[in-house]
Specification:
Blueprint (H helix, E strand, L loop, with lengths): L2 H6 L2 H22 L1 E2 L1 H4 L2 H10 L6 E4 L6 H5 L38 H15 L5 E6 L6 H8 L1 H4 L4 E6 L10 H11 L8 H4 L4 E7 L3 H14 L5 E6 L7 H5 L6 E2 L8 H15 L3 E5 L9 H6 L4 E3 L4 H13 L3 E7 H4 L3 H9 L6 E5 L16 H6 L5 E3 L4 H11 L6 E4 L18 E4 L5 E6 L1 H16 L5 E4 L2 E3 L3 H6 L4 E9 L4 H8 L6 E7 L9 H8 L3 H14 L1
Helix pairs in contact: 4-11, 6-7, 13-19, 15-17, 20-24
């Protein structure tokens, strides 16, 4: 429905249209996967925004972007919506390259107000005339970047509309002091002094309105639009995550993200089991997460040891410093986080944790390509940005069984450790784990050896070796389970002339580059396979590995070439 059609429709027509949108989102996500509950909750609010404002002339920035599906359906992409999150289909997040209606790419929390301010200031400097809206959830409002942006609101002297979508959730239920302030505001019969939290930044506060009720939210949006003539506005609306589908409303955390197929064995399950077992023996063990309790497998720990479990909200930097300080006072923190989100705390990892050589264990989930969430969620940089940091040990388990052993070993380490792993894997078997030591998995008398890091790359290597051996080419396989420290003793001892490395990380700064650098004067030939130097779009894990590497066919060609050289 076009902007003109939305403006001409009656409330009853709009309500019917919202239900059609909700059904389209549900049916598509059921098949393609994606963010379900968050998108179901903002249908009416987004329809209202499209009716009151003139997109794409007016600009909207979706914080994180988990709630942009209705916006996509209303902006000329309804005929392609069935390609959601598929390779070469539309993204599950806002993408400037996809549509002129998407004014800013998002994927991580807390950026929307900063971005909206930048867009508005550019508008002012160019003498243009349009409105800028930041749509941000209460979960993102915990993020420190939000307050850096608000702090500069008066300094920048520009006008934006902040729509606060308050549903009491991020992925897990929202926690912390900001959440309590918002709850007090929602429970008050008359305006409270908590409104000053926003007004002191120079915002005109308007609220609280039901964002799932068109008859209530449409007039509120109209008033907010008029108020923008005199300054920036914060419009506070409440919505229900999962609105319209009972099971989504009842379990919004479990239906936040939907997979089109049933996931296999997850590393996060093992993490929860092992941390509970370790904590039973060691009262120093604590768990830290940034709004990802269930997704990272920590629910059993939180239920068993609530006094030693800390969900700080979407505050990755704070969680890192908190972990450092806990360790400095004798505790043993386990900080569970997605690879892509740990990037946000790079400075704190360097200075607060590794600079002080503190025994913090990073449990880094979704390492390698994560698949359909696209560029902002691919975990292909962690080996590079972690391996360069002094004092930090970087481990890459070959399977879930070895992951369990690494966790048990971590309880005795005296410095920081990062263990990175994909979402799914196999339990498998494992022997012993010695820090900084590789493991030979398959030995031959040939002149070719593969050093593969992590479960996906080892599986790729085994498949390639099977094909090579069917052609009479022998290849030795080594589990390169530590990116740092490297097993230099094994590297020195191996006699193979041709060394192949495989990792699910970008090649620049990865384990292949580290091995090549170490062997540069050895006379050996090193060939490294990993991900290309580019941002990797959305698609299935299999598609992305084949297209952007490491690629089984390329590795096999390399083996054949090495064998032919003799």
């Amino acid at each position: 429905m076009t902007h003109e059609a939305l403006c001409g429709a009656s409330i009853s027509q709009l309500k019917k249209f919202c239900e059609q949108i909700r059904e389209e989102i549900f049916q598509t996500v059921a098949v393609r996967g994606g963010h379900l509950a968050s998108n179901l909750g903002v249908v009416e609010l987004t329809v209202g925004l499209h009716r009151v404002f003139s997109f794409p002339k007016d600009k909207i920035v979706f914080d994180v972007g988990h709630q942009c599906y209705t916006h996509k359906l209303l902006s000329g992409r309804e005929d392609r919506f069935f390609t959601l999150r598929q390779r070469n289909g539309i993204s599950g997040f806002p993408k400037r390259t996809e549509s002129k209606y998407d004014s800013y790419d998002t994927g991580h929390a807390g950026t929307s107000i900063s971005a909206a301010l930048g867009i508005a200031k550019a508008r002012d400097l160019k003498g243009e005339n349009f409105q800028v809206i930041a749509l941000i959830g209460d979960g993102s409002l915990n993020n420190g970047l939000v307050y850096e942006a608000l702090n500069s609101l008066k300094i920048l002297n520009t006008n934006i509309l902040i729509v606060l979508n308050d549903n009491g959730m991020s992925i897990s239920p929202t926690v912390g002091g900001t959440h309590e302030v918002l709850d007090e505001m929602k429970g008050a019969e008359v305006p409270t002094e908590d409104i000053a939290l926003f007004e002191r930044y120079g915002l005109q506060y308007m609220g609280i309105y039901n964002g799932n009720d068109l008859e209530e939210v449409l007039p509120a949006l109209e008033r907010a639009k008029k108020a923008l003539k005199t300054g920036s506005v914060l419009l506070h609306v409440t919505t229900r995550k999962g609105q319209g589908y009972a099971f989504c409303e009842q379990e919004p955390d479990r239906t936040h993200g939907i997979s089109p197929s049933k996931p296999g064995k997850e590393y996060s399950t093992a993490l929860g089991e092992e941390l509970v077992a370790l904590a039973k023996k060691d009262k120093r063990i604590v768990a830290v997460t940034a709004a990802m309790t269930d997704a990272l497998g920590l629910r059993p720990f939180f239920e068993r040891y609530p006094e030693r479990a800390f969900d700080v909200g979407i505050c990755e930097e704070h969680a890192s410093v908190l972990s450092a300080a806990l360790a400095a006072e004798g505790m043993r923190p386990y900080y569970a986080i997605y690879s892509t989100f740990l990037q946000r705390a790079f400075d704190e990892v360097i200075h607060d944790i590794c600079g002080q050589n503190l025994p913090v264990t990073f449990c880094i989930d979704r390492a390698g390509v994560s698949g359909s969430d696209g560029e902002t969620h691919q975990g292909v940089f962690d080996l590079s940005y972690l391996s360069m940091i002094p004092n930090l040990t970087v481990a890459i388990p070959k399977n879930i069984a070895e992951f369990r052993l690494m966790l048990r070993e971590s309880a005795h380490m005296n410095g920081p450790l990062a263990i990175r792993y994909p979402r799914e894997g196999t339990e498998g078997e494992a022997g012993t784990v010695d820090i900084g030591k590789f493991e030979v998995l398959h030995s031959t008398m040939s002149d070719i050896v593969i050093f593969a890091a992590g479960e996906r790359c080892l599986a790729l290597a085994r498949g390639v070796i099977e094909k090579a051996e069917s052609e009479g080419i022998g290849v030795t396989l080594v589990n390169a389970r530590f990116a740092k420290p490297l097993d230099t003793e094994m590297l020195d001892a191996r006699g193979e002339k041709y060394v192949i490395t495989i990792e699910d990380n970008v090649l620049l700064g990865g384990i292949g580059e580290a091995i090549a650098q170490y062997l540069c004067n050895s006379g050996k030939h090193v060939f490294s396979f990993g991900f290309k130097d580019c941002f990797i779009p959305h698609g299935s894990v299999r598609e992305l590995m084949e297209e952007f590497g490491p690629n089984a066919d390329e590795v096999l060609r390399c083996i054949r070439d090495c064998h032919a050289r003799g």
